[in-house]
Amino acid sequence: MTTDNPAIHALLPAAGKGQRFGDALLKQYAPVAGQPVLLHAIDILRSEPRITGITVVLSEDDESFQETVGNRYPEVRTAPGGSTRARSVLNGLEAIRQHDPGAQWVLVHDAARPCLPRDCLRRLLRQGLEQPDGAILAIPVRDTLKLSDGDGRIADTVSREELWLAQTPQLFPLDRLISAMADALEAGHSPTDEAAAMERAGARPALVMGSPANVKITHPDDIDFVELWLSNRDRPAGGFE
User: Fold this and answer.
1) CATH superfamily, with its number, for domain 8-231
2) pLDDT in tens, 198-213
3) What pLDDT is attached to residue 26?
4) Given CB 3.0 to 4.6 Å as the disulfide criterion, which of 5, 110, 184, 239 pairs with 211?
5) Strand partners, 139
6) Distances from the Cα of 36 to the Cαs of 4, 33, 67, 69, in angstroms?
7) What average pLDDT score do residues 214-230 get?
8) What is the DSSP letter of 12?
9) For residue 220, what are the CA distances in angstroms to 16, 23, 55, 68, 136?
């Protein structure tokens, strides 16, 4: 159980090169619904009054952040990225601990998820702050899963019972996540999300219902869906109570 008003700092890893996106322009800066993808993600977090700080992790050769975000929101801090997403996240976490010593919780959100419904964010904070091991947004797997034999053929049908698709944001106590990420990297592991690091450290984060709308832009085709959703954002949208 947490205090009534814990200090929450948001972290957005944006140091990736987006190789699967296949565009010279990094996907976090791709224009959609009138502004860059990253700016949509930041705007959602800024709209939540319980989030008191935002840090974005950038690659050392990033030439777009200052023009697209920094000039508009000078209060948004930055931190240097690393060779992997996990290393970039740890760099960002350590920067938060240094520059925002009052932060108790960290909310890690993908820079390429611009469609996070506000009701999902509120639900994650409401439920997650009651969990000692934190929580993540996720949605149950609804489609039949097939296991490949590695040669383009079906080897087995996998039960979808109890399977969830992880999303972000993911919410954890700051100091515990720093320890979990550092231990994982020191042991030669590179967790693909923060929950995996916490699980490795023995935690059992809670699953909080997310939304199918909360997509992560991976391929250029994803832009069409994102454009449509963001253009209709004020209408009733994804998320479940």
Assistant:
1) Spore Coat Polysaccharide Biosynthesis Protein SpsA; Chain A (3.90.550.10)
2) 999 999 999 999 999 9
3) 85
4) 239
5) 165
6) 34, 8, 11, 9
7) 89
8) E
9) 16, 8, 26, 20, 26
What pLDDT score was predicted for residue 16? 79
Give me the DSSP letters along 117-137: -HHHHHHHHHHHTT-TT-EEE
The domains of the chain are located at 8-231
Pairing mode, strands 51-58 and 8-14: parallel
- Residues β-bridged to residue 137: 208
Tokens of 20: 């699967």
Tokens of residue 80, six digits:
């240097």
pTM: 0.91
The per-residue pLDDT of the chain, averaged, comes to: 91
**DSSP track, 19-39:** GGG--SS-GGG-EETTEEHHH
Give the integer Cα–Cα distance in Å for 203 and 187.
17
Amino acid of residue 170:
Q
Place of tokens 């992880």: 166
Residues 6+ positions from 25 with CB-CB distance below 8 Å = none
- 49-69 mean pLDDT: 95
Residue 230 phi, psi (nearest 5): -65, -30
pLDDT the model gives residue 118: 95
2 vs 153 pLDDT, higher one: 153
From CA 7, how far away is CA 211, in angstroms rounded? 25
